Amino acid sequence: MQSADRCGIVGGMATTKTIDIRTEIPGPRSREIIERKERVVADPLSLTFPIVIDRGEGATLTDVDGNTFIDFTGGVGCLNVGHSNARVVEAAQEQLERFSHTDFTIVPYEVYVTLAERLCELAPIPNAKAAFFNAGTEAVENAIKFARSHTKRPAVIAFEGAFHGRTLLSLSMTSKTHPYKAGLGPFAPEVYRVPFPNDYRGPHAFEALAALERALVTQVAAETVAAIVIEPVQGEGGFVVAPKEFVEGVRRICDETGIVMVVDEVQTGFARTGTLFAIEHYDVEPDLITLAKSIAMGIPLSATIGKPEIIDAPGDSAIGGTYVGNPVAQAAALAVLDVIAEEDLCARATFLGDQMRERMVAWQERFPQIGDVRGLGAMLAIELVEDRETKAPAADLASAVTDEAARRGLLLLKSGIYSNCIRVLTPLTLSDAELDEALAVWEESLEAALG
Ligand SMILES: Cc1ncc(COP(=O)(O)O)c(C=O)c1O
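Above: query sequence and pyridoxal-5'-phosphate SMILES. Below: predicted holo structure tokens.
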């Protein structure tokens, strides 16, 4: 990505810069396409950044006006192996030339079976079996189907701050009213909500566990609950890490009551936290795991993996769909697994996480508006507040920082139930130089927005 015309002079030393802003943002070509979009695309598909991508490479993307950005949004966590990773592109192209679709249950193909073999071998569940879908929401909804068929129970328990998708059942499990749920009900029945532990805002792990146990007395009988669904690190919820004792407590409750423990790894999955699956940080074996996003470099593919007695429970043809387990996406996923192993992206995630956390903690000391720094591996976020004492969420300040950063060539994404967190979902292939540059720009943006 680096070319001679991107060489700048910083502090008297010649440096090669990745970020290259050539026009004011949005540039004329982006503006023109966005104006066309306004006329023909549904308004709810509102835009975070007023730039239109032309191409992506590694941790960068270049817009149609020739501006190059470092991309810390990573397609909302889909690009752990980087934009347009050459090995993945080649694998997908090769598959596309052979055939693109049959519907696996009509005419099966080997790549589906090979990917299932490799994922089940890697998943922290002995003798696991897999089923593939398209989006994360489908993996979650199908996990509930497996759990209901296995337990013959209807109810589902999800947590405050959870995000599990936007189709009816998963949206019912998602826990953010605006913008996701307001006005879109009625929601699916038999979804119960309990608090998620949060070291910064509370409740403590033991209080959240007590609330879960109380819910089985006051809200829904354990013998009617099919599944408890938990993200090891809440993604859209603001990168809130589940404490070890909490995850272990959930496992214990599931063991005592026959409830299926579903670990939603759609955002945490695939090396981002320093292990392939985030649940590997815990001494816990889940019953089902859901995956999507980075498993196929953003080519739509999701998976539900789990214990055979649960996955095998629904009757013949009770699970499926025309497009589920697309062979092009699966060929890409096999290449993604190779890239993660060969480039040791788990170790890279840990390294990037350590570097970023150190800087974020220094920012926290400098800027009183940074209330919390948290995360696991390279899945890190800062939380912005009006005041350290009251912890009043500062969503506007978070937007001001992301706006300043975008203008300077760094794309950052917000999250959190109050939309006041800024999260890192950078490709893990980010180079050391790009990391330095991105953090310098982020720091400048904090200075500009927070003073
Ligand atoms: C933890 C989690 N589960 C499920 C989903 C839904 O995935 P998708 O948007 O692919 O349907 C998301 C999306 O962000 C997620 O973060």
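DSSP finds 14 helices and 19 strands in the chain.
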